[in-house]
């Protein structure tokens, strides 16, 4: 027989056990990741997730990540950002100007961390780099500042070349294009280069751009890291080989896909840094109080297999400048 006292004690313990068990469960923070690349296996996303894990944020345990991909189309981001808001996520990570603009338009309260934002003050993502204000912070991306360096390196690789082109997505960073063009034109004149600007909006445009470049005897192309071009980097590299036109790109992902060279940031490293900002926000720091980070290191990467296929001999002084050589 169970005594009345024993029964009451047991009943009381069971009554309080459920709330205590619930209290012991960690809060699961829901993160929306507005991606360009359609695959969750992208090196940048993997870098972010791995670093979050090192910081104690583990998918399936205390975070859930909604991967919302545009497939390289900026016009898809407004609906994806609206979906993230409807799902009442705790934080939005954006991956470029298009996704950041869409997220900022969709919410003034959900924290936003942009992993890559070109000229974030000029694009009105933040009030200032030191004091972003509002619900947005992230990592600034240098766009117009690095174009001249890329041209210089390509000119050193191809000293006799005088006809260059810049391939860019015309629908993104539209308010920055005049400044980028001006900076590149000034650099081109100093190097004795004529520069052709070619805007694209679709994959068909990219293929047509290489046809145009071949017809106009363009000797090298500087490829910007816009979403459409990044997502289709393997096809861009293939087209460059088919048309026998060397390309200089904004980051090493293009070179790993077969482009001749790149100069810019290491993008997986950039997304590892973004994870630290996400960590701060999840632990309670308002994004408006977290300064926007600026890049400090850049890498020059050369693909010698592609150089051989294009019958280009990269001068030794140029190779000595490379941080990494793919051979």
Give a topology summary:
Blueprint: H1 4-24, E1 29-35, H2 43-54, E2 63-69, H3 77-86, E3 91-94, H4 97-106, E4 112-118, E5 136-141, H5 147-157, E6 163-169, H6 177-190, E7 194-200, H7 203-215, E8 220-223, H8 227-231, H9 233-242, E9 247-249, H10 252-256, E10 261-264, H11 267-282, E11 299-303, H12 304-309, H13 316-321, E12 324-326
Parallel strand pairs: 1-2, 1-3, 3-4, 4-5, 6-7, 6-8, 8-9, 9-10, 11-12
Antiparallel strand pairs: 10-11
Folded structure, characterized:
This protein is α/β, with parallel strands linked by helices. The chain folds into two domains: 29-142 and 266-289, 3-Layer(aba) Sandwich (Rossmann fold); 147-264 and 299-326, Rossmann fold. The chain contains 13 helices and twelve strands. It has helices at 4-24, 43-54, 77-86, 97-106, 147-157, 177-190, 203-215, 227-231, 233-242, 252-256, 267-282, 304-309, 316-321, and strands at residues 29-35, 63-69, 91-94, 112-118, 136-141, 163-169, 194-200, 220-223, 247-249, 261-264, 299-303, 324-326. Helix 3 crosses helix 4 and helix 5 packs parallel to helix 6. The longest helix has 21 residues, at 4-24. The N and C termini lie far apart (82 Å).
Concise structural overview:
It is built from 13 helices and twelve strands. With 327 residues, it is α/β, with parallel strands linked by helices.
- Helical proportion? 40-55%
Structural class by secondary-structure content: alpha/beta
- Tally of contiguous helical segments: 13
Choose one word for the global shape.
elongated
Q: Trace the largest sheet across and list its strands.
A: 7-6-8-9-10-11-12
For the record, the CATH architecture of the largest domain stands as 3-Layer(aba) Sandwich
Query: Would you tell me the overall average pLDDT?
Result: 90
- The counted number of beta strands is 12
